[in-house]
Amino acid sequence: MAAGIGLLTTGILAQTAPAAEPYKILSVTQTMGNGGIDYVYADNDGGRIYVPRGSQILAFDLGTGALVGSNTIPNGGRAGQGVAVDPKTHHGFSSSGPIRMFDTKTMELIKDIQVEGRPDGILFEPMTERVYVLSHSAPNVTVIDAKDGSIVTTIDLGGAPEQGASDGEGHVYIDVESGNNIAVVDAKTLKVTAHYPLGDKGGGPGGLGLDAKNQILFAMCHQPQNCVVLSAKDGTIITNLPLAGGSDGGGFNPNTMEAFSSHGNGTLTIIKENSPTSFEVEQNVTTKPGAKCCTLDTKNNHIILTALERAPAPAGEATTPATPPPGGDQAGDRRGGRGGRGGRGGGGPGLLDIIIVGR
C-alpha cells in the first residue's frame, strides 16, 4: 500500500512539475560612442564580450556587460566587423581591411595583416588553431595562423559567406548566403568537400547553429524567414521551422540543446532539439529593435545581443525614435555593408546596448 501511494505521489508530481522558465532580458548595459556595429563575440575562456565599433575594439565583462577595455585603431582606422580569439595564445583578430591582430590581455595591437576581399564574418577553428576570415568577395575565406598571424591559404566557396561554425573535429561549416547553401571545409586540407543546398526551404542564410555531438546544422535564413535543420553528415534536410524575423545571427547551446536566431526587428527565436529528429519553436523573445547579431555565454547559458540607440537629445529638445528599416536590418544595404555603415543611429554618436538574455 505504501509503495502504491509512493507511485501515485510520484505520478502527480511529474504531471504538475513547472515548465522551464521562459527566456527574457536579464540586463541591458549602455555605453556611449561613435560608429556602427556588426557582430558580437563571446570569449568564454577569457570572460569577455568583444564588439568592434567605429575605430575601437571594445571589450566588455561577459557576466555583467560592463565595459572593461578598448583598443583604438590609429589614424582613424576601422576596427572591423567581428572578432575571433585563440584562447591558447590570447591573440584576438578583428575582421577588417587589414585584419587587426591584438593581445586580449592588454588590448594592445600586435600587427595588421593585409588581406584581399571584403572581410566580414570571422571564426576560430580550435583543432588547427586557425582563424577563418569570411569575405563577401573573392577570396571568400582567408585562413590565418592564430599563433603568429601568418596567412596559410585562401578558399573559394563559390559565393558570399556569412557565418561559420567548427565541430572541433576537422569540419568547418559556412553558410553561403548568395549560394543558398552550406559549404563544408576540411580543416586539415583546407578544401571544400561538399555544398549542402537548402532548396526552397530557406533562403539567404545569415545565421548558423551546430550541434556537434549529433551532427545537426541549423541554417537561419532571411527569406523566407525559416530555420532549415539538416544533417551535418550529408546535408539531408530534416525539417524547417519559422523564425520571428530575418536572421542575421544564430548559434546552438549544447548545455540546453537549443538553437537560437537573432533578428533586427527586435526578436530572438529559440528552437528546442528534443531529439536528433524532433525540433520545435520553443519561444520568440522580444529584445530590442536592431538587435540583429548574437553570441553565446556557455557558462551562464545566456544569449548576448547588441543594438545601437541614438544619443539622448539635450534637455528640452524633441527627438524622433530610431526605427530599423523594413526587414529588420540595421544597415540600409543589408549585405556587403552589413554593419560597418552605421546600424541604428547612422554611425554617429549613440548608445551601444549589451543585451543579456537568459532564464
Task: Describe the fold and architecture.
This protein has 1 helix and 28 strands. By secondary structure, it is mostly beta strands. The protein has a single domain, classed as YVTN repeat-like/Quinoprotein amine dehydrogenase (Methylamine Dehydrogenase, Chain H). A hairpin with a 4-residue loop joins strand 7 (91-94) and strand 8. 49% of the residues are buried.
What labels describe this entry?
single chain; 359 residues; Methylamine Dehydrogenase, Chain H; four-stranded antiparallel β-sheet; 1 helix; 28 strands; 4% helix; globular
Question: For the largest beta sheet, what order do the strands appear in spatially?
Answer: 1-28-27-26
> Which structural category do the helix and sheet elements fall into?
mainly beta
* CATH topology value: Methylamine Dehydrogenase, Chain H
Helix-strand topology string? HEEEEEEEEEEEEEEEEEEEEEEEEEEEE
In the CATH hierarchy, what is the superfamily?
A: YVTN repeat-like/Quinoprotein amine dehydrogenase
Computed Rg? 21 Å
N→C terminal distance: 40 Å
CATH class: Mainly Beta
Outline: globular
Q: What's the main sheet like?
A: 4 strands, antiparallel
Percentage of β-strand residues: over 45%
Helical element count? 1
Q: Which segments are poorly predicted (pLDDT under 50) over 5 or more consecutive residues?
A: 1-18, 320-345
Q: Report the CATH architecture.
A: 7 Propeller
Number of domains: 1
Number of strands: 28
Give the fraction of residues assigned to helices: under 10%
Average predicted confidence as pLDDT: 88
